[in-house]
Design a protein that fits this description.
The protein is mostly helical. The chain has a two-stranded antiparallel sheet. Strand 1 and strand 2 form a beta hairpin. The longest helix has 29 residues.
Length: 157
């Protein structure tokens, strides 16, 4: 369990570090034009990113509470939780990357606002011991790396 949590924390830290580095590099380069006229491609991309963001945020926050995912975690414990948490971090990371790059290409502030919203969302999925225990419905003795199953209570849907 410690290895899984450590791996997820490292992945989460790398995704944040990549976002900060990307923001710094894009902010201080002269590669992208200063102003750009809004055209159909910008409108289409903006609409798609907004819709995808609106779908991804609730999905990433409530992903581990879905019945099918709970069943998968109950069957495979560490491997399923590791894969699903990595997937959740990766989805947010790639969407954040698309938003920040689009902001600098099109100079449209709505992409930056989407990026900030996704960064705030990623704070709420930061891997911690309590989150891991809660999402896996386990009580974990972290010193001995022992697992005890909690009583089955149906999560609030």
């Amino acid at each position: 369990m410690k290895k899984v949590l450590t791996k997820l924390k490292i992945l989460f830290g790398i995704s944040w570090l990549c976002q900060i580095i990307m923001l710094a590099i894009l902010e201080y380069t002269e590669y992208f034009p200063e102003t750009r006229v809004l055209d159909a491609s910008d409108f289409l991309l903006s609409t798609c990113l907004i819709l995808i963001t609106l779908a991804v945020i609730p999905f990433s926050l409530w992903m581990m509470r879905m019945k099918s995912i709970r069943r998968m975690i109950d069957k495979q414990q560490q491997t399923a939780y590791n894969k699903l948490s990595t997937l959740r971090i990766a989805i947010l990371f790639f969407l954040q990357t698309a938003c920040i790059i689009s902001y600098y290409i099109f100079c449209n502030p709505s992409y930056f606002y989407l990026w900030v919203i996704l960064i705030i969302t990623s704070i709420f999925i930061c891997p911690t011991r309590a989150r891991m225990e809660n999402e896996m419905r386990l009580t974990i003795n972290w010193e001995k790396d022992e697992i005890e199953k909690k009583e089955d209570k149906e999560p609030n849907e």
